[in-house]
Model the fold of this input.
Amino acid sequence: MSYKVLAPPGRSGDGVAISDEEFARDRTAVITRLRENGDLDFGPAVLDPKHIGDIRGSLGTISMRDRVPRRTWWKRLATLAVIVGPGLIVMVGDNDAGGVQTYTQAGQQYGTSMLWILVALFVVLFVAQEMVTRLGAVTGVGHARLIRERFGRFWNLFSVGDLFILNFLTLLTEFVGINFGMAYFGVPKWWSVPASGLLLFSFAATGNFRRWERAMLLLVVGSFVFIPCFFLSHPTLGPILHGMAVPGVEGGTNSAAILLIVAIVGTTVAPWQLFFQQSNILDKRITPRWLRYEQADTFIGCIITTVAAGGMIAFAAFALNGTKRYGPTITYTDSGWFNNAIHATLGSTAGSLAAVMLLVAALIGAGAVSLSTSYAFGDSFNQHHSLHRTVRTAPFFYAVYAGQIVLACAMVLLGSSHFLGVLTEYVQVLAGILLPSAVLFLVLLCNDKDVLGPWVNKTWQNVLTITIVGVLIILSLILVISTLFTSVSGKMLTEVFFAVGMAVTLFGVLPALAVAKQRRVAAGGKSDRLAEVRHLDRDTWRMPPLDQLPAPKISPIRRVGLLSLRVYLISSALLVAVKVFSSFAH
Done:
């Protein structure tokens, strides 16, 4: 299969024709020739010629030779409209079927008292995904491939293995959500689940990125059904503002509340988002020239997903929480129960909108999560992985995509609705437990000067990100201990662990960093260990080909830390599995 890159305007010739075979044989030479031919803005590490070309967004096209400055707000907005996609889809896809169940469960059981968590998670969400936008645009390589190249095959297989298990479980919850959403309207799962799987595959397998993106953005528009749902619950402003501003949990902090908090973290900032957005940026052919627009796309998506999540919590709080104006306190079971409870409480219109909200969320989530797995597998096994390709030119990519959808559909059709409903919450908990590992690899990559050059993290970004990782690990520890020892006070655990964490940071981590800085300066180095790359020109610097990168230096301390984190994560994941089966047994 060959592709023609046309000559730029004003130059003679018919352009340069390249093929998959030629590109694979000498990628660096081909890219050098293309850059010289058209002064093109992409990096030499690009692995697939299909990731080179014009940006064909849902709302227009930007030529890869476009160098025209955007001097007016109208032109900037028109450019943003073309770029919008990866950030918006990954963020709205974050509020998937598991998210709908987790948020509405939080509202039904704890009122608006958990809204403050979303305010805090907004920062976490944007910081993590902003790092992903830089990695994608600057390197031209997917997240899984970077882990493989910089940390080795072992960590790549471990990370992608984690991702595959978590993504597949998440995909199960998406089809469970589709089942519950359509069952409200009387459609049996033997029709709704296979039909939705076929629909998702048909979106992706056309070989047309723009067509897939338009379908996903149409679902994004449909997700705004949460707005009428919110107002139908007759909300009042006071409890919402109090829940956003005052940290706490209605009824006190116990193991059940901590479990739900970890689930909220897991569904709001999920590991699959890192892999999906970085690869989707490559697939859309976004380069550093358009990075500010992609960051704006991500920021807009953060706002929408946080507001939507808060709206779902408030919707359930005002409609079903016993301390509010409707009905007695009742036990949340699953999303199907929630739709029927809304119908009984607020009427058929609200019940129908709640079911549509769940259905749309599940479709967006299923499309993004399954594609995240396919992207990661293509990266890890060096196979073509692009929505610009057809089934014939990327058989491995689409086989992984179709295989997971078929298997998930089959398990939902044959499985117990009660078990799958219980599973939904615990999948989000598992995502919250695995998140620190994913964020740790992300921050290490964003401090790798050979990978990002002048685009490496600033000091404040590292401090904030490491703080986030520490908080997530503490939450996981609290969850583990409060689960194993149910008599231990969750509030006491929270106070003790955060106090210990602050003490370790103030009297251990910060002094150690200060000593390391002094030693570096004394040895003739600079106080900022990345100072040598920060001054480089961001407009022209790109990551070199992977085979030209120097081997990364992994210190013994970092290696022990990574291994310790993995041991802990495996133990925590096993605990979640025990909780799932014990809940099912009861």
About this structure: The chain is about 70% helix and 0% strand.
